[in-house]
From TrEMBL:
This is Cancer-related nucleoside-triphosphatase. The keyword Nucleotide-binding applies. The keyword ATP-binding applies. PANTHER family: CANCER-RELATED NUCLEOSIDE-TRIPHOSPHATASE. Pfam families: NTPase_1 (PF03266). InterPro entries: Nuc-triphosphatase_THEP1, P-loop_NTPase. It comes from the Eukaryota. Keywords: ATP-binding, Hydrolase, Nucleotide-binding.
C-alpha cells in the first residue's frame, strides 16, 4: 500500500531545506532507495535581496538546476491581501519556462515503476488550476496505482493549499503531515516514520 507524507508551512519556513536533509539522510542510511521527483529552489536578486523566481532541481541529482520561473519585470509589484494572493494565477506574476516544465515531466514519466519515493516540492496554485506539474504528477499517481506499486509519496505545500491539492490530485488517502516550523523531535519522528515505510 502506498503512503503519503506531507510537509506544510508558510513561505521560507524551511520545507525545501528539510527535503534536502531527508534526501541526504536517505543516501546515507538507505542507499538502495530509489528517489525521483523535484524540488523548487528560490532565486534571490543579490542586489535587492528579494526572491525573483524559482529553479527546478531534479532528484536524485541535486547538482543541476533548471529555470522554472522569473518575476515579470514589466509588471508593478502590488501589495495584495491574503485572499487575493490565494486566487491569483502565478502566471500573472511570473514568466514560466514551459520547455523546462515539459522536460521535467518527460523525465519523471520515465521513472514510473522505478521509484520507491516520489518527491514533489512544492505543489500549489498552478497544480490546483491543473497547470504546472499537475499533468505529470497526475499521470504518476494513476500509473503507480494501476500497477499496485508500494512506492511512497512526499509533497510540500503551503497549508492553505493542502485540502485543494488532495481534492485535485489522486494521492493516497492515508497520510502523515509535518507542519513547519516545529520542534526538533517532530522532525525526527517524521523522518523515522518515512524511513520505516521505505
Amino acid at each position: 500500500m502506498s503512503n503519503l507524507f506531507i510537509l506544510t508551512g508558510s513561505l521560507n519556513s524551511g520545507k525545501t531545506s528539510y527535503v534536502q536533509s531527508l534526501f541526504q539522510n536517505l543516501k546515507t542510511h538507505k542507499p538502495h532507495i530509489r528517489i525521483s521527483g523535484f524540488t523548487q529552489k528560490g532565486v534571490l536578486d543579490p542586489q535587492e535581496e528579494m526572491k525573483i523566481g524559482y529553479d527546478l532541481v531534479l532528484l536524485p541529482n541535486f547538482q543541476k538546476q533548471y529555470k522554472l520561473a522569473r518575476l515579470r519585470t514589466n509588471e508593478p509589484q502590488q501589495v495584495l491581501s491574503k485572499e487575493k494572493r490565494l486566487v491569483r494565477n502565478p502566471r500573472h506574476r511570473f514568466n514560466f519556462d514551459d520547455a523546462n516544465l515539459k522536460m521535467v515531466k518527460d523525465y519523471m514519466l520515465q521513472r514510473i515503476g522505478k521509484t520507491d519515493l516520489w518527491v514533489f516540492d512544492e505543489l500549489g496554485k498552478l497544480e490546483i488550476l491543473k497547470d504546472g506539474h499537475y499533468e505529470a504528477v497526475h499521470q504518476i499517481l494513476e500509473q503507480e496505482k494501476k500497477t499496485n506499486s508500494n512506492c511512497s509519496f512526499l509533497f510540500a505545500s503551503r497549508e492553505e493549499f493542502i485540502e485543494k491539492i488532495l481534492c485535485t490530485l489522486p494521492f493516497p488517502n492515508n497520510f502523515q503531515k509535518l507542519q513547519f516550523p516545529c520542534l526538533g523531535s517532530d522532525y525526527v519522528k517524521f523522518q523515522k516514520s518515512l524511513f520505516s515505510n521505505l
